[in-house]
Design brief:
By secondary structure, the chain is α+β, with helices and mostly antiparallel strands. Helix content is 24%, strand content 29%.
């Protein structure tokens, strides 16, 4: 998500003041910066974020967080956010690491290529080091050459994973659900048990998963399975017994944290959106798959913790995606997208409904060891871009 913000034209670092965010004086400046800095899935679609009066909202739910701003000549010209948590890396339980995540790096378009982005990241890394963080990591669009140059070439980050962001519009027509599949909502305690049992060794699995599931923004966890004759719905996973095939997913209401607004899209996308909404309003019985109006602020649901077991699990994953779409279409007035992110080599990709125009086939995660010890050296070898992950990737919804 990081915008272009690296530096070939040098500005003296002493002219840049990096300090903590102050909500009393900085809120308007940060919100204005967000409105002027585009993010998005690629060359054809650009999005802008609306933090709804709370620029710190995207990190507020993390265990530890910090927000820094950059000033130049008394003007607010940059901002960066960071979070700290404990996650699983590679071979649990020995490799439970403390990681710092960098997000929301913005630099004013008029002040880019002057070293401001570099200075913001450097100061945030100092906070990570002071809090005994093992690794810093970040995510950006793979085609964002300026961001990749900043983190990889200048700051020593290593290309780590290329997950896929899958996006599906939430129009007002509900999907038909297969009659032979049961979809049940789990209690938070049940969901936590399943996640620790089946995804506890997943890369970047948060050790405080209970706090994620219990957060007010987490709408719940659902399982889909083909019921066994004679068994009741409430018996899923009872005494450690599970159906041959099942799937689960949790849902996070990102629209309650911040909104998105489309600032640019191909003309064909705009025309299709207008014409499909018109046809849908005139002939609703045909259930035209209309494209919602993305040019006004909207929210989205984020599906996380997706897991599947068994030979029929692909169908069950699709069923869960349809269930979440139907939730978005009927329960939330401004939710216009259903989004998820999976590992680049994860077989789930083909089971998740998505629109290619809105999705990002290769997001880019970069990582950097912050401790120079034997453990970091050993894991550094596992972070080669050619290495294919052996397990799924857990994307924390608090960092979306």
């Amino acid at each position: 998500e990081t915008p272009e913000c690296s530096g070939s034209k040098k500005m003296a670092f002493e002219d840049i003041k990096i300090r903590n965010y102050d909500g009393r004086t900085d809120r308007a400046g940060v919100e204005d910066l967000e409105r002027r800095c585009e993010v998005g899935p690629g060359k054809h679609v650009f999005l802008f974020t609306d933090t709804m009066g709370d620029p710190i909202c995207r990190i507020r739910n993390s265990p530890m967080y910090k927000m820094l701003v950059a000033e130049f000549n008394n003007d607010l010209v940059g901002v960066i956010r960071g979070t700290i948590k404990r996650v699983t890396l590679h071979n649990p339980p020995k490799n439970v690491a403390k990681v710092g995540y960098i997000l929301g790096l913005r630099v004013s378009p008029l002040h880019r290529r002057r070293g401001i982005g570099y200075s913001l990241v450097h100061h945030l890394e100092e906070w990570f080091v002071a809090n005994q963080v093992d690794y810093a990591y970040m995510a950006t669009e793979k085609d964002n050459k300026a961001s990749v140059k900043l983190f990889v070439n200048k700051l020593g980050y290593v290309k780590f994973r290329t997950p896929t962001i899958l996006v599906h519009p939430a129009n007002r027509h509900c999907f038909d659900m297969p009659p032979d599949v049961t979809v049940a909502k789990l209690k938070v305690e049940q969901a936590e048990l399943l996640y620790r049992m089946f995804m506890g060794g997943t890369e970047f699995f948060p050790r405080d998963i209970n706090k994620v599931l219990g957060n007010k923004l987490s709408l719940g966890t659902w399982v889909a399975y083909t019921p066994v004759r004679g068994a009741s719905e409430g018996e899923f996973g009872l005494n450690g017994r599970f159906p041959d095939s099942w799937a689960m997913v949790s849902v996070w209401n990102s629209g309650s944290v911040f909104k998105l607004r489309m600032g640019k899209a191909p003309l064909s996308c705009f025309l299709y959106g207008v014409s499909s909404r018109f046809m849908d309003s005139v002939l609703p019985c045909f259930k035209v798959p209309s494209l919602p109006d993305f040019f006004h602020p909207f929210g989205f649901y984020f599906m996380y913790g997706m897991h599947h077991e068994g030979p029929l699990s692909g169908k069950l994953v699709r069923t869960l995606c349809k269930h979440v779409h139907n939730m978005a279409a009927t329960e939330s007035g401004d939710c216009k997208l259903v989004v998820t992110e999976v590992g680049g080599s994860d077989g789930l990709r083909s089971c998740i409904p998505n629109w290619k125009l809105l999705s990002c086939p290769e997001d880019l995660w970069c990582i950097k060891p912050l401790k120079d010890d034997e453990r970091s050296t050993r894991i550094r070898g596992l972070m080669k871009p050619t290495r294919k992950p052996t397990r799924a990737l857990f994307v924390d919804p608090r960092e979306v």
